[in-house]
Amino acid sequence: MAQSNAEIKKIIYASLSKQTLGRALAQLSLLTKGTPNEKLASIQENYQRLLQHWAGDGVDPERDAIFRRLLKQTYELTDDLIADRMVKPLATNETFKHYWEPKRYTTQLVQEAIEASKNGSPVQTAWIVSAITLNCIELFDENKLRCLFAFCQSEHTETAMRALTGVIICLLLYKDRYSLYPSINNQLQELMDDEAMVSNAQNIVKQLIRRK
Length: 212
Description:
Elements: H1 5-17, H2 21-32, H3 38-55, H4 63-83, H5 94-100, H6 107-119, H7 122-138, H8 142-151, H9 157-173, H10 182-192, H11 195-211
Helix pairs in contact: 1-2, 1-4, 2-3, 2-4, 3-4, 5-7, 6-8, 7-8, 7-9, 8-9, 8-10, 9-11
């Protein structure tokens, strides 16, 4: 019986969380359905080179970094292939739509979000944060988390708490992979250097646990 996309994705994510990259790539090939994919071919080629290097007892200080990069690329390619098969619900609010529809955020969109986090109204920023959070839940993207971290510093308290909640939810959902992104860890550390933010985060986690 053929596996569904959701089943294949689940196997890939589980394999990557255990760092069994070979199994993940085998499953990822099923998502391409025999269609040549340059990104997948590149990952497979680099992985084979890495295996050959390991087999030859080669000493390479960059070996772990290369392996982590391949894990990251496999996660992202899986996300993109699944996203291409999904139909997103239509949004009517233009502000929400602007941040909800893009699958991955460009540098320009990140800059727009950061600017809005500084100058946007409470209503506008609330729409933006909600769209970014829901978008990141559907498709993990380092740039989306960058936006949420920016909104955590908003002068509008409700927006800041909404953004912090989004950060926590996304990090919980993707706990097996955010360590592959040093910039996320750096921003999280900066956020947690603020005692008030730590206290707010603890309260949010407690509320999430109660609601679960």
